[in-house]
Design a protein that fits this description.
Order of helices and strands: HEEHHHHHHHHEEHHHHHHHHH
Radius of gyration: 31 Å
Shape: elongated
Strand order of the largest sheet: 1-2
Helix content: 55-70%
Strand content: under 5%
Structural class: mainly alpha
Distance between the termini: 32 Å
Number of strands: 4
Oligomer: single chain
């Protein structure tokens, strides 16, 4: 095959009047003036033997072989062997990946330029243009027939991979969180939210109050509870979408940047199978999360609290909410209807806790996978700058997740703290705290003698979210340090260039969010701290997110 290309190259050389030059005894021709994609330009240079030593016998220069090209590249490196034979064989394979990193492209240009700086620069620019042309054609679906054949073969292999994926809990959750399925999961969340609201409407629980004392009537309706409005309608879908973005990006693009000679357009079924194997190794924690949510969040609270209190006929020290309204207003709603609404309510609570914990588990896996790949890049040719930036995207996703989970915990805490106050509704409760903190009013919120397990739930959520953030920060940081120390490319930055914010800032924001959470209902003026947290969160989550430097 190479001999045929060499013959056509000789004819093309004659037609275009290429100059035959001798550079330190090495054969040289200028790069073709016509447009080539990277694969065809590389084949022309290989077949013509550009950069090979001229035979002393006067014979024609022979085409490059994979072995000879590997040796030539390594001879030009002061650090010794930097590339292996398998990598060069992939470049030369007719239907191989053919991807080449920027450092390797520069090494090829040195070989083809015969060591001369000017000629090396000519080939480097030609190779860069051809590489970019290939990428543009692939993105636009305009590759030549050979490229189209490779795409068809690749698509067939992708189909085989998807069909052969074994059903496991971790992969099933990954599918739900990735791509179009993430929209389905969000629709499921909104549908369950709508059913919960519809059920409350049918039972007239959208807005309902009960008498605490002769002069205090307290609102416990569905639409007055942040746990049933803000959390499922806004916070939970935002969390799912954010996690979907980082999971899909890592699976199909980001992970490949840490693999040898890979790029964002170059992920193969083999790479995906490696990611699937990584997920298979974490199936046990996903099962633990499922059992914890079904057994702890749903069964323990519904059967252990609601059904038991229904049987006793009184709430005792527990707060009266929508689920326990039948204990103080049996004329308004009966025990059977209360059991039905509380069962659905706790099932929904178990669902969103499951989604939050599963999302954090995926971030654990992503950060661990990144660190593992980053620590094994020694001797592997990758774009170090892009690899470091991929770690930063995982770090930013971990911070976004912790921020959203923090607000989910605040929603639950607000509901629990309000039910322990003597305010008639949650808006008046917040307004009293705000005006009293500014000295605009003398009314202060009092407290009722009751309690709720939600206080422990919110503490657990914020603790787990911050622990996940700390672990992801540590793992990503270690991976980025390892990439920087590898010193594969002089352009590799010591840290991310993607609008990078230091981890001290991240952790400081989370500490302030956690302190604001703990102050709810305990410190006068907590509403001011919540306003500051809300302003920062809205700015952070709505700021432009562009993957700068992506190929």
């Amino acid at each position: 095959m190479l001999q045929g290309i060499f013959t056509s190259t000789q004819k093309y050389t004659s037609d275009c009047d290429w100059k035959w030059l001798m550079a330190t005894g090495k054969y040289y021709i200028e790069p073709p003036a016509t447009e080539h994609d990277f694969k065809s330009l590389l084949q022309v240079a290989i077949a013509a033997g550009v950069g090979r030593q001229m035979p002393s016998t006067g014979d024609s220069v022979q085409p490059w072989t994979a072995e000879a090209l590997t040796t030539a590249i390594n001879q030009n490196e002061s650090r010794g062997s930097v590339i292996d034979l398998r990598t060069v064989q992939r470049w030369l394979a007719p239907h191989g990946r053919g991807g080449v990193s920027v450092p390797n492209l520069s090494r090829l240009a040195v070989v083809f330029g015969g060591g001369d700086p000017t000629r090396t620069r000519s080939w480097q620019m030609a190779l860069m243009r051809a590489r970019e042309r290939t990428r543009v054609e692939q993105r636009n679906g305009m590759a030549d027939s050979q490229s189209e054949d490779r795409v068809l073969i690749s698509d067939e292999k992708w189909s085989d991979v998807e069909l052969n994926r074994k059903p496991s809990l971790a992969r099933s959750w990954e599918s739900l969180f990735s791509g179009d399925d993430a929209l389905r999961l969000s629709i499921l969340i909104w549908a369950a939210y709508a059913v919960n609201g519809l059920l409350s409407g049918i039972l007239s629980l959208l807005s309902v109050s009960y008498s605490v004392t002769s002069d205090l009537s307290k609102e416990v309706g569905f639409i007055w509870a942040p746990t049933w409005t803000i959390l499922p309608a806004l916070i939970l879908p935002l969390f799912v979408m954010r996690l979907s973005d980082i999971l899909a990006h890592w699976r199909y693009y980001g992970r490949c940047r840490l693999l040898e000679n890979a790029s964002s357009d170059n992920c193969t079924p083999k790479d995906t199978l490696a990611w699937d194997a990584r997920l298979d190794g974490t199936s046990f924690p996903f099962w633990v999360i499922l059992v914890l949510c079904v057994g702890g969040v749903f069964l323990a609270q519904w059967a252990g609290i609601c059904l038991r209190l229904y049987a006793d006929g009184e709430a005792g020290i527990y707060q009266i909410d929508r689920n326990l309204l039948t204990l103080v207003r049996p004329d308004y709603i009966g025990p059977v209807a209360s059991a039905l609404t509380s069962m659905f309510g706790y099932l929904y609570s178990a669902l969103y806790v499951l989604i939050f914990l599963t999302g954090l588990m995926f971030l654990f896996v992503l950060a661990g996978d990144y660190e593992m790949l980053a620590r094994n890049t020694k001797g592997v040719q990758i774009d170090g700058g892009s690899a470091i930036r991929e770690g930063s995207w995982i770090a930013l996703a971990a911070f976004d997740a912790a921020l959203l989970i923090g607000w989910a915990a605040i929603s639950i805490k607000l509901q629990a703290a309000y039910l322990s106050s003597d305010a008639p509704n949650i808006l008046l409760w917040l307004f009293r705290d705000f005006t009293a903190a500014l000295g605009l009013a003398a009314d202060l919120n009092g407290r009722l003698p009751n309690t709720s397990v939600s206080h422990f739930t919110t503490f657990l959520m914020i603790a787990v979210a911050n622990f996940a953030l700390f672990v992801c920060a540590t793992r990503v940081g270690r991976g980025q340090v390892s990439l920087s120390q590898t010193d594969q490319d002089d352009d590799t930055p010591p840290h991310s260039q993607l609008g990078y914010v230091s981890w001290k800032t991240f952790l400081g924001c989370q500490v302030f969010l956690a302190a604001s959470l703990l102050s709810i209902g305990q410190v006068q003026g907590f509403s001011l701290a919540l306003i500051c947290c809300l302003a920062f969160s809205v700015w952070w989550l709505t700021r432009p997110r562009t993957r700068l430097g992506s190929e």
